[in-house]
Design brief:
Length: 279
């Protein structure tokens, strides 16, 4: 059998949206630009994502078993595994099985526990799904929740703003104790800034701030997580990676505002991809 593992690869378990930059549609060009092959595991197919008034949706859950089984026959090996939006308990279980079957101690596992925003869980996310997501988070090397998701995973009470550093430290510590060595809590409102709180076991936590832009775009978390995952596989320092990803997302938002891109369409990262430092 031919050997298929000469190049670094990341498996991305997420949905595909034909229009509206999010999920695998975002991850593939960014990870590829960073000199890593992105291998999609599509959990579902959308014509355009659910922030639009109308969309076509096709659930791929029951087809994933055969899809993944054929990868086993090819003896594929990955340096990274990343997961994003998972719409059911069954999909979360499939990701856990994938991690068990395709990872070892050297594989970077990035879990973006997409469950909610602005203090609320998304419609489909029951208590059972949130508990299963907590178990998936325990498998992660790197966990990238927003502040809402961090509160859901730890049981802390959400608040819109006014977070104190000792509160964030406690939340991040609880997330680290679940299993992940590295945690970055994103989207924390602090005055005129948006902060990301970074906690790595054995190191002092750090806070990275960027000036807040009063326009929220779909898919910015996917841009952020894709850079984090590729950098981790490429051996980039985690603190440096978070700083780079934060600044790149801000630049993309600024450029999207300049071009009057509708917020549902996501940020026009294509305009700035050439500025992204690979290593």
């Amino acid at each position: 059998m031919e050997e298929h593992n000469h190049q670094k690869k990341i498996a991305s378990i997420n949905d595909i949206s034909g229009f509206g930059r999010c999920s695998i549609t975002v991850a593939m060009p960014i990870v590829s630009y960073m000199k890593i092959q992105l291998c999609p595991v599509p959990t579902s197919i959308f014509s355009n994502h659910t922030a639009y008034e109308h969309y076509y949706f096709d659930d791929y859950t029951d087809r994933l078993y055969s899809y993944i089984e054929n990868w086993k026959k090819l003896s594929l090996k990955f340096q990274g595994i990343m997961s994003g939006y998972l719409g059911s308990a069954k999909q979360i279980d499939i990701v856990k099985d994938f991690i068990r079957d395709f990872s070892d101690k050297d594989v970077v596992i990035v879990v973006d526990p997409v469950m909610g925003d602005n203090g609320k869980t998304y419609i489909k996310f029951t208590d059972d799904i949130c508990e299963r997501m907590k178990l998936l988070a325990a498998s992660a090397s790197i966990l990238t929740p927003n502040i809402t998701e961090a509160c859901i995973l730890t049981g802390h009470k959400y608040k819109e703003a006014g977070w104190k550093l000792n509160e964030l430290k406690e939340i991040a510590y609880t997330l680290n104790q679940l299993g992940p060595e590295k945690v970055v809590i994103t989207g924390i409102k602090q005055g005129s800034c948006i902060a990301n709180y970074v906690s790595v076991k054995g190191f002092e936590p750090k806070v990275f701030k960027t000036k807040k832009i009063e326009r929220a775009y779909s898919g910015t978390g996917d841009v952020f997580a894709s850079i984090i995952a590729a950098d981790a596989v490429n051996g980039v320092d985690f603190f440096d990676s978070v700083k780079k990803a934060s600044r790149f997302v801000k630049k993309c938002i600024q450029r999207s505002v300049e071009l009057d891109i509708p917020k549902e369409d996501g940020v026009c990262f294509e305009e700035l991809l050439h500025t992204l430092k690979i290593k």
